[in-house]
Amino acid sequence: MKHKIILFLLLFLSIFKMMSQEVKKGFLFPKKVGFLYNNANEKNFLFDDKDYSYTTNTFKFQAFYDLGNWKNLHFELIVQPQIQALKHQLLNEQFVTPGETNYLEKREEFTALKTMHLYAFELGFVVKKKILRNLDIQLTVGLGVGTIDTRTERLAKGFTFIENGSLGFSYKTSTKTYLYIGSNIGHVSNFDTQLPNNGYNIVGFEVGFSYKLQ
Questions:
Q1: CA–CA gap between residue 89 and residue 131 (Å, rounded)
Q2: Taking the C-alpha atoms of 154, 156, 157 and 158 in order, what is their torsion angle to the nearest 10 degrees?
Q3: Is the whole model's pTM more than 0.70, yes or no?
Q4: Separation CA 200–CA 14 (nearest Å)
């Protein structure tokens, strides 16, 4: 997984350098580019399922597009491909019932701690409101599609949907740079395209950095 994250970061830096050197104006060219790190898990004040454990470290490359203003609100679209490094373990083997095919083998497979990966493409819809000169409060709703490389008792291997909601603060640290800190709530499932589809629910924190191109 480490080499994949390094390749992802190198790709981000290459695109960042290219865009910084020559920026064209137009719909296809973002106003800002950035990078966001998210850490989340299932053990929290909203979700605390005793049947399983689940944690994620997510790395997102972000391209920001202006959607305009309305009254004192500013709207943006974030295009954010990502890699999620996941750890999962079934804690309650009785979750796999005797009615399932090969249930004993599945219990042994799923109760082992797993390291998994999810690769996704997500669109984030942002609403921002200025509260201080260089400080905005930011609400983001994200929807995306992806693929997960390992099956568990809760989710089949392969195609997935991801849903995220984030609330945080964006601080303008210079004329070109921005720092973001926030919290998020997320869900992963496959919309019953495969079984099982119990999915995962998470709450976490995130920090991001972005650079203004235009």
A1: 42
A2: -120
A3: yes
A4: 33
Mean pLDDT of 172-196: 93
Residue 26 has a pLDDT of 55
No. of H helices and E strands in the chain? 2, 8
Q: Is 68 left (phi over 0), alpha (psi -120 to 50) or beta?
A: left
pLDDT tens digit string along 67-125? 889 989 999 999 999 999 999 999 999 999 998 889 899 999 999 999 999 999 999 99
**CA–CA distance, 63 with 35 (Å, rounded to integer):** 9
Contact 125, 63 (CB under 8 A): no
DSSP tag of 16? H
Share of the chain above pLDDT 70, in %: 86
- Residue 135 is classified by DSSP as E
Parallel, antiparallel or unpaired: strands 52-70 and 73-90? antiparallel
Decide the pairing of beta strands 177-189 and 73-90: unpaired
Helix (H) or strand (E) holding 193: none
> Radius of gyration over alpha carbons of the chain, in Å?
19
Cα 13 to Cα 73: distance, rounded to the nearest angstrom: 31
